[in-house]
Amino acid sequence: MKKIMVIGALGQIGSELTVLLRQKYGVENVIATDWKTKTDNKVLAEGPLEYTDVMDKPSLRIVIEKHQIDAIIHMAAILSATGEEHPNLAWNVNMGGLYNVLELARAYNMERVLVPSSIAVFGPETPREDTPQETILRPTTMYGVTKVAGELLGDYYVRRFGLDVRGLRYPGIISSETLPGGGTTDYAVAIYYDAIRYKKYTCFVKEDTRLPMMYMPDCLKATMDLLHAPFDNLVHHNDFNVGAMSFTAGELAESIRKYIPDFQIEYKPDHRQKIADSWPMSVDDSAARAEWGWTPSYDLDAMTRDMLEKLEQKLG
Ligand code: NAD
Ligand code: SER
Q: How far is it, in rounded angstroms, from Cα 98 to Cα 113?
């Protein structure tokens, strides 16, 4: 991989992954693209930043040709909560966009494509504890539907066209740099911001809601490790479960109270509760561990300590 295009580079994960990729491959060799064209992130703005809309194939082609792109990290998506508000947009961006990306990767003989999937591929009929790698995939959100189809499409391109497409099922990602973009797990980020600003938070899921989560440094490590794993070691391609930690909203609040003892939380579940209830509480990631050596580093308290430190600096 000599010239990497990151699509959706201004989002929660793309914004940090792009910076990391630039440290490894060189600033000019990692092209950030997004349909947003402005960023407050100074580090990101220092390197190449181009406009693309994944639904508009020519906009992708222009950047691929201009920069001689040979690998794509495809982070652009409409997440679960926004996807339920705008299912048509979620279908068009997540499915139409992915199809455009894969077709262009095939046409330009790209070396590799990485496309994240999500715990949203699972549904209420899936076993919720230690959710197996191979299990029932019957999601109830449009986002989940597109993620299941995306995994299958990626595997199809591997089998049918020999294109190296890889993907992993991120759990809820928690980070301090860029806010999340409309997901069900966003409460696990917002709680830290409100803990610092107001010492209280109103949570949109119930206290006993347990979901699998991951801190951004582990998310970046997992993404880089899968991206660079030897192809021949992979039995799976686009659907790796990756676990790190699993906690309830109440346990998250308790963890924050270790550092901010007077932190208060109230619970006012909204429409996102139903989505959270349809997802796993924890996942079995033994395939990722066996095929590319996945191991997480952060647990809940280590993450809380780091998040609060970083946000105190950021928010003053
Ligand atoms: P995000 O919403 O924070 O960022 C997505 C970026 O894509 C945004 O900058 C947005 O402007 C851009 N984008 C959206 N539509 C576009 C379009 N049509 N053309 C070009 N750019 C477009 O999302 P994220 O959290 O960074 O997620 C990245 C990937 O990881 C997605 O595939 C998402 O489904 C997956 N994922 C994320 C999480 C999480 O907790 N963050 C969990 C599971 C899976
Ligand atoms: N964090 C994501 C969401 O809540 C999971 O894919 O939509």
A: 10
Q: What CATH number should be reported for the domain whose range is 4-171+215-241?
A: 3.40.50.720
The tokens for 140 are: 């109830």
Q: Is 82 in the pocket of ligand 2 (CB under 6 A)?
A: no
Nearest residue by C-alpha to atom 6 in ligand 2: 118
The Cα–Cα gap between 143 and 65 comes to 30
**How many angstroms separate the CA atoms of 139 and 146, rounded?**
9
Cα Rg for the chain, rounded, in angstroms?
A: 19
**Ligand 2 neighbour 118 (Cβ under 6 A):** yes
CATH number of 174-213+245-281+298-315: 3.90.25.10
**Looking at ligand 2, which residue's alpha carbon is closest to its atom 2?**
183
Lining ligand 1 with CB less than 6 A are: 7-8, 10-14, 34-36, 52-55, 75-77, 79, 93, 97, 116, 118, 170, 172-173, 180-181, 183, 185
Burial environment of residue 102 by CB neighbours within 10 A (0 to 12, 13 to 18, 19 or more): buried
pLDDT, tens digit, 9 for 90 and up, residues 183-219: 999 999 999 999 999 999 999 999 999 999 999 999 9
Number of residues in the chain? 316
Residues labelled catalytic: 143
Q: How far is the CA of 264 from the centre of ligand 1 (A)?
A: 30
Angle (CA) 253-256-261 rounded to 5° is 100
Domain ranges in the chain with CATH number 3.90.25.10: 174-213+245-281+298-315
Question: How many angstroms does the Cα of residue 257 sit away from the middle of ligand 1?
Answer: 31
Ligand closest in space to the Cα of 141: 2
The pTM of this model reads: 0.98
Which ligand minimizes its atom distance to the CA of 174?
1
How many CA atoms does the CB half-sphere of 28 hold within 13 Å? 3
User: What one-letter code names the amino acid at 308?
Assistant: L
pLDDT digits (tens, 9 = 90+) for 142-188: 999 999 999 999 999 999 999 999 999 999 999 999 999 999 999 99
